């Protein structure tokens, strides 16, 4: 599913450069649930952004579903964002002006899903997340946990192959975090969605079936 | 998808009320002003162009001047010109138009009319004024015929059919109504209410006096050139040999009727003409207003990039293409623009009467070329949405999601652009303010410059038509009234003396030497009443008046020349008196020399002038009062008037009005400029207000920290305002040279003018900076006063 070969990333700093990722080799199989851990500033988010095609690596090769990402054009990448990759953010990043329902519907709009199918899919997801009653509320009217549920609902509504989550529970109380983690587990086990999450919590990391430690831009062990 | 865009747009507007209000108000104001100015300019630029034969229509201008003296161009030509040219191969038709003031009587109704003209028979064939009744070829085809405008027909005849009825002019001449014409539109220089047949006048054709407009219809549109050369040689042939050799200018030039309003250089037009330069300035104002309002929009939209950027990033990770985001933002600005256009139109409709008043026009939506305004509006809508939408749309849709998700949005680039746009806005505002102040200064100068003759406490009674004996009796009766100092009479206003005459047979000059002058026949007490200073000679005596009342061959005239005329003749005030000369057949001598005074607009230099007593015809009685022109005195004058002229309705004006009429265009332009400068300034300030609000909002945390560390309110306000004020100062520095250039140019159009001084620029600077400071303070003071704990907690 995801294959990184000698991926490196650096930013220019003054006259030198700041190496953030150094020769990262990493393969994630379809159906895995991977947790990335490491100290602050070690490059976890950067790695996740690269996997999510939001950032270009400075060197190395990245194959997504066996295809070289650096050879893809803008169109193809957008296509992947629409269909294959779902994002969950620590800060939820819901669109404030849209209701719960409309937030979840947005990826389908970009995917050009027909109106009737949009309705049924959003309804399905709302049902599954027990949020039918909240569908007409705006994000500001929800608790943090509820917002993150909407964030996940939005990430999965377009039926992606992989969900990339950057500290999805970082802003949440541990009870809420548990709900989210249970949800990820279900999505992974029942829906066979590949999940890559960045987390600082050892507990959350145990939900996954593999833990990757990153330190100073290197994958440990 | 589009539903989603509109939804977002509407919710965004509702959520950010200040932002929405600023954008919509600014744009609506910009669009309203744009519409009004567009209507104005449309009217100006379509002047007379709607006549069917417009490409063949010309008016002849007379050009004359001494050798070495500036040439005078006048639209008034001698009555004999028409007959002299009617057989030219280029000429298809010639029409003379002669404008007068007349007292019109029908039944019980008696009114003074100032849009009364006499015209030759083919008038309605030459021009395309539609006739509601009557046949264009026949309505003026003989003496004693008159055509009324629709409004006049309604005024005098109500529901009756006026055709065939008889009206009386000045209590003497009877005219039969032969037709009714549609009211002349506001975009024609010939605004008549009565057109009587020229043959009614039974005047002999003469070359000596020029009081007639001569219009020509050419056989082919491209014959103006050959007509001009034929006219030139004809004019030259008219002059005596010596005059021809003396380098005198005497010419007739065809000017296209389509350009009379804006391009004609002739004086004495039937209607005060427009001025291209002002039209260009107004176009600039119109476009500037729109651009400035658009700039507000762009500035605020990009300043909010941090906020909107996050959304862009999220949408991109959800699979949005740049194009889709682009259209989303365009939709938003289109919505705002649409609301603004609708509001702007309503506002324009609401303000139209006030604007008409200001601009001295009768503009309306619709009209002859009305649809164009809607086309323009549609164009303005699309251009505005595009302008306001594209830049923010490109800017915002270009964000890379990672930058956004990491919270880095505002590059220095956006900031600089925003600063430049604010500078641009305020430079434009400063430019208009400087212009407004400078124009105001010049008008003030004109108002307060010593004329050299009186213009205060003078009443002009209009429509005197009785003979001399009656005038004397009328005068005597008036003089008995308390508060009346002097009474005199003249055919037209002392503030704009226009009659063209020629001096000849001058003592001490070649017999063939001639000099063109402006001259005014007056009543005995004119010089005294008007407060004209004599440098030499004596005022008129009763004996002098007797001299001009004698039989034609025995008449002796007494001329007063002004300083300029005396100088041009090579005399001094002392040597001039007693010199014999003739003026258009009037034999006499110089009685005195008048100190130069302004008897025409200060746009041109004082010209040679002759004032002489002649009792043929006066049109107005001038009354000098002691200063209290109160109702009682005027009522008293009216009583005497009605006693002596029961046939003529009493109507009067103050001499001041005549004076101000000379600068009507300037006053009008100043009023328009004033108003729109204020709008430009306000719209710019709206933008500044929005920006200040956003900046302070973004810097709330910084302000909080500074205050915790002990910063005073004043220092925080300074900190926040400093940047904006800097921009305004830069704007002023940019605007100064351009406005200086334009204003100096404008001032040169006046022979008598003020000089530009630093005061104007300083005034504009103080105004702009203080207005900007107040605007910015509305936001910054609030932020500075906020309790720091609150602002830090909410972070
Ligand atoms: N645009 C950039 N320019 C320069 N350096 C950057 C840039 N973006 C990130 N970095 C640096 O890259 C390093 C890794 O950042 P990253 O966000 O991946 O860390 P992280 O492991 O996610 O940390 P955290 O746990 O705090 O989220 C940091 O030291 C950061 O300063
Ligand atoms: Mg991180």
UniProtKB/TrEMBL annotation, chain A:
Superkingdom of this protein's organism: Bacteria
InterPro entries to which the protein is assigned, alphabetical: AAA+_ATPase, ABC_transporter-like_ATP-bd, ABC_transporter-like_CS, ABC_transpr_LolD-like, MacB-like_ATP-bd, P-loop_NTPase
Pfam family, one: ABC_tran
UniProt key word Hydrolase: no
PROSITE patterns xref list: ABC_TRANSPORTER_1, ABC_TRANSPORTER_2
One GO molecular-function entry: transmembrane transporter activity
PANTHER family: ABC TRANSPORTER ATP-BINDING PROTEIN YTRE, IMPORT ATP-BINDING PROTEIN
Family: Belongs to the ABC transporter superfamily. Macrolide exporter (TC 3.A.1.122) family.
Protein's recorded name: ABC transporter ATP-binding protein
The species this protein was found in: Chitinophaga solisilvae
């Amino acid at each position: 599913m995801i294959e990184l070969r000698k991926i490196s990333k650096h930013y220019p700093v003054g006259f030198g450069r700041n190496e953030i990722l150094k020769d990262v080799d990493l393969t994630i199989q379809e159906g895995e649930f991977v947790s990335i851990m490491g100290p602050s500033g070690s490059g976890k988010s950067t790695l996740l952004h690269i996997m999510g095609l939001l950032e270009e690596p400075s060197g190395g090769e990245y194959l997504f579903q066996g295809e070289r990402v650096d050879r893809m054009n803008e169109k193809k990448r957008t296509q992947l964002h629409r269909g294959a990759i779902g994002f969950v953010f620590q800060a939820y990043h819901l669109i404030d002006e849209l209701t719960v329902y409309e937030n979840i519907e947005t990826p389908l709009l970009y995917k050009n899903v027909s109106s009737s199918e949009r309705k049924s899919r959003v309804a399905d997801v709302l049902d599954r997340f027990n949020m039918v009653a909240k569908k007409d509320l705006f994000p500001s009217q929800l608790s943090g946990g509820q917002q993150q549920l909407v964030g996940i609902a939005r990430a999965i509504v377009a039926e992606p192959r992989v969900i990339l989550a950057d500290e999805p529970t970082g802003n949440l109380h541990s009870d809420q975090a548990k709900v989210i983690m249970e949800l990820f587990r279900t999505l992974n086990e029942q829906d066979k969605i590949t999940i890559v999450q960045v987390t600082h919590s050892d507990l959350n990391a145990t939900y996954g079936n593999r833990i990757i430690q990153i330190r100073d831009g290197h994958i440990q062990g | 998808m589009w539903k989603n865009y509109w939804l977002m747009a509407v919710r965004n507007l509702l959520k950010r009320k200040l932002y929405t209000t600023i954008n919509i108000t600014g744009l609506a104001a910009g669009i309203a002003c744009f519409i009004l100015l567009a209507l104005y300019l449309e009217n100006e630029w379509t002047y007379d162009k709607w006549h069917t034969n417009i490409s063949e229509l010309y008016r002849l201008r007379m050009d004359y001047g001494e050798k070495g003296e500036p040439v005078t161009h006048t639209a008034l030509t001698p009555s004999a010109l028409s007959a002299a040219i009617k057989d030219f191969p280029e000429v298809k038709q010639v029409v003379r138009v002669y404008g007068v003031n007349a007292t019109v009587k029908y039944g019980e109704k008696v009114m003074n009319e100032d849009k009364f003209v006499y015209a030759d028979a083919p008038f309605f064939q030459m021009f395309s004024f539609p006739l509601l009744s009557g046949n264009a070829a026949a309505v003026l085809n003989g003496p004693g015929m008159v055509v009324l405008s629709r409004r006049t027909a309604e005024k005098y005849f109500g529901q009756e059919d006026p055709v065939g009825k008889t009206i009386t002019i000045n209590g003497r001449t009877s005219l039969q109504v032969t037709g009714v014409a549609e009211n002349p539109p506001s975009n024609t220089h010939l605004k008549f209410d009565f057109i009587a047949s020229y043959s009614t006048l039974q005047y002999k054709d003469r070359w000596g006096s020029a009081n007639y407009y001569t219009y020509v219809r050419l056989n082919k549109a491209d014959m103006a050139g050959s007509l001009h050369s034929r006219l030139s040689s004809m004019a030259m042939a008219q002059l005596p040999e010596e005059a021809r050799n003396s380098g005198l200018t005497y010419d007739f030039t065809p000017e296209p009727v389509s350009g009379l309003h804006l391009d004609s250089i002739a004086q004495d037009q039937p209607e005060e003409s427009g001025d291209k330069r002002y039209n260009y300035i107004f176009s600039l104002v119109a476009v500037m207003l729109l651009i400035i309002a658009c700039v507000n929009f762009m500035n605020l939209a990009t300043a909010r990039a941090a906020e909107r950027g996050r959304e862009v990033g999220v949408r991109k990770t959800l699979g949005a293409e740049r194009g889709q985001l682009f259209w989303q933002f365009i939709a938003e600005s289109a919505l705002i623009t649409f609301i603004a256009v609708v509001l702007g139109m309503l506002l324009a409709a609401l303000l139209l009467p006030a604007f008409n008043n200001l601009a001295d026009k009768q503009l309306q939506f619709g009209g002859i070329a009305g649809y164009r305004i809607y086309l323009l509006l549609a164009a303005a809508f699309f251009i505005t949405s595009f302008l306001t939408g594209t830049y923010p749309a490109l800017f915002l849709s270009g964000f890379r999601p990672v930058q956004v998700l990491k919270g880095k949005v505002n590059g220095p680039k956006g900031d600089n652009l925003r600063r430049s746009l604010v500078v641009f806005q305020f430079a434009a505002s400063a430019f208009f303010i400087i212009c407004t102040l400078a124009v105001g200064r010049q008008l003030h100068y004109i108002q307060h410059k010593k004329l050299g003759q009186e213009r205060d406490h003078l009443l002009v009674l209009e429509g005197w038509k009785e003979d001399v004996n009656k005038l004397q009796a009328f005068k005597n009766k008036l003089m008995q009234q308390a508060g009346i100092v002097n009474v005199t009479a003249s055919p037209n206003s002392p503030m704009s003396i226009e009659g063209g005459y020629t001096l000849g047979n001058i003592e001490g000059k070649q017999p063939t030497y001639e000099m063109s002058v402006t001259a005014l026949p007056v009543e005995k007490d004119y010089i005294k009443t008007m407060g004209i200073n004599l440098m030499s000679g004596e005022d008129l005596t009763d004996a002098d008046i007797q001299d001009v009342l004698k039989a034609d061959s025995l008449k002796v005239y007494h001329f007063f020349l002004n300083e300029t005329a005396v100088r041009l003749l090579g005399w001094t005030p002392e040597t001039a008196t007693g010199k014999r000369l003739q003026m258009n057949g009037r034999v006499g001598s110089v009685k005195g020399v008048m100190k130069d005074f302004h008897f025409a607009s200060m746009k041109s230099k004082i010209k040679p002038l002759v004032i002489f007593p002649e009792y043929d015809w006066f049109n107005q009685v001038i009354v000098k009062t002691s200063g209290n022109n109160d109702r009682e005195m005027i009522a008293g004058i009216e009583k005497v008037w009605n006693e002596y002229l029961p046939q003529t309705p009493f109507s009067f004006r103050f001499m001041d009005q005549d004076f101000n009429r000379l600068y009507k265009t300037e006053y009008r332009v100043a009023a328009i400029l004033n108003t729109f400068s204020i709008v430009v300034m306000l719209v710019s300030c709206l933008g500044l207000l929005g920006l200040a609000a956003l900046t302070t909002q973004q810097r709330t945390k910084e302000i909080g920290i500074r205050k915790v560390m002990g910063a005073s309110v004043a220092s925080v306000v300074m900190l926040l305002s400093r940047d904006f004020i800097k921009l305004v100062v830069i704007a002023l520095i940019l605007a100064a040279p351009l406005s200086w250039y334009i204003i100096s140019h404008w001032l040169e159009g006046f022979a008598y003018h003020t000089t530009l001084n630093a005061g104007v620029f300083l005034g504009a600077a103080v105004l702009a900076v203080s207005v900007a400071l107040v605007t910015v303070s509305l936001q910054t003071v609030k932020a500075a006063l906020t309790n720091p704990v609150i602002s830090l907690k909410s972070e």
